[in-house]
# Entry
Amino acid sequence: MKASTLRGQAALLLAVNALFVLSGALSGTFLNVYLWKSRQDFAMIGWFTVAQQLALGLSFWVAGKWVKEHNKMNALRLGIAVSGLFYLAVLWLGSRAVQYIWPLGILLGIASGLFWLAFNIVYFEITDRDSRDAFNGWVGLLGSLTGIVGPWVSGRLISAMHGSLGYRIVFILSLCIYAAAAVLSFFLKKRKTSGEYQWVEPWRRLKDSRKWRQTSAALLFQGLREGVFSFLIGLLVYLAAKEESRLGQFTLITSAVSLFSFWAAGKWLKPRFRSAGMLSGAFLLIAVIVPLLWKVSYVTLLLMGIGTSLFIPLYMLPMVSTSFDLMGENEDSANRRVELIVLRELSLMTGRLTGTLIYIGILSISASPRTITLLMLGLGAAPIGSWLFLRRRLRQEDGGRNPAG
# Structure
């Protein structure tokens, strides 16, 4: 009975996550394009991302106390509600949104921080080492499905309704889906509290644990890449195609590839294959950027997007599973899971901020296609750094046991 309940809660958590991601896919895919159309400024988009990342990391750290000592489900619901508030603000501001990049970025960062902190804690509690890769595969699978549906629908709507009307309809649709996610979240059971929150535990763990120093460094390198790639690719596709429907088409195709690749990786990428899979994925993620050296066009960007979608599970699933396995390697770590998830997010945030600041600095000097491609190649090589820091632990995986140490 207990196992059955656990499976039901896992399915509900996946459904809430899918709705949250779908709403973000509907509007978030075109959010930077919406801002760009008001002001053509690469640095402005970068500062919007910086504001989000700062707020996201700080909200993880501050909200950790609430999530550990009180009701983590309320944090998850508030994250959904604040996401809806963000899109209400964008609807109200319209073209004036570019004048409020920092407050809007902070609002979106707080929303993401609250939701993902609570989601990651519950995810850790309802999975174990044996089921974590499969659960991650389902998260990627559903994320790909929402990536197929959401941006394609948004792109068609925005292109069919010229001007701001299409964007307004898409933002309203996102609000409705956030509301549905909030309602569904009330079927998730309240989780037990787990002791007193230790504010300085992330820093203490870095000081005392070599494994966490290595893992945090690997996460920092992950953030270096994804902080910039998360917004730059979609903007480049729009600039190359000059039409929102083509961006929707790009996301549909790449998400369809991800649908298959995450399913396959979740099924066959077992712990003993993590090291080889992660290293292969890291090099392949660099290789797919190389065609952009010849020409930055819709076709070369699509080839890069397809390749990235095909190979990124090889890199991402070991990254996610390894860090969460470390949280559960002993009773003390499991009891400190909130603080360790905060440490994980702060490590990612540091990488994302660093990558985005590099992006702002370089593109403030030159925003030529060649410069952008070289920047992407440099930041795209960051996954190799992740593997270098984790390679010994990954190679110690023997299909079920992690050696102590």
Observations:
- Confidence is low (pLDDT under 50) at residues 1-6, 398-405.
- The longest helix spans residues 2-38.
